[in-house]
Amino acid sequence: MFKVIRRSVGPASLSLLTFKVYASPKRDSPHKTSVKVIELSLYSVPKGQSKYVEEPRTQLEENISHLRHYCEPYTSWCQEMYSRTKPKMQSLVQWGLDSYEYLQNAPPGFFSKTWWSKIKKLVYPPGFMGLAASLYYPQQAIVFVQVSGEKLYDWGLRGYIVIEDLWKENFQKPGNVKNSPGNK
């Protein structure tokens, strides 16, 4: 019917470029009438009516669907907790980085070098272990911080009371005659 002639010049890597294609009738074939668009099978209307039929779900699909519906409240809770704790954790990490930078470039006389090495040996390992453990066990970390905070508060209050008692015994006002030499 028609013979296709491709006219392009260039290497094979340029084969992705667009080019013109010319069609010419074969010289020995008889001339036929052109085909109408309606006659093409691409545009023909199928006979009868077609309707969409949904395939039934398999047992695996049903089980996955039930599992997703069962887990949905837990996953939404996890997403909510993550969205709440993410800014706090980012600010905590930023605070740690800022503190580290400040302590690395501390003003002269802020702390002596011997004390700084002892502080680093005492504070860094348990601090980093606690931070790492709190990432994996957040609920237990919260309980631990609450209990240890209460205990630190109690110890601080006891220390304050002891210091207050010592202060009152040793450094009284001059008008108080309890420990004056003339009142024995």
From TrEMBL:
Stored Pfam families: ApoO
Localization (cell): Mitochondrion inner membrane; Mitochondrion membrane
Main location, first listed in the record: mitochondrion
Keywords carried by this UniProt record: Membrane, Mitochondrion, Mitochondrion inner membrane, Transmembrane, Transmembrane helix
Domain of life: Eukaryota
Subunit record text: Component of the mitochondrial contact site and cristae organizing system (MICOS) complex.
Role summary: Component of the MICOS complex, a large protein complex of the mitochondrial inner membrane that plays crucial roles in the maintenance of crista junctions, inner membrane architecture, and formation of contact sites to the outer membrane.
Sequence similarity: Belongs to the apolipoprotein O/MICOS complex subunit Mic27 family.
Protein name as catalogued: MICOS complex subunit
Species classification: Eukaryota, Metazoa, Chordata, Craniata, Vertebrata
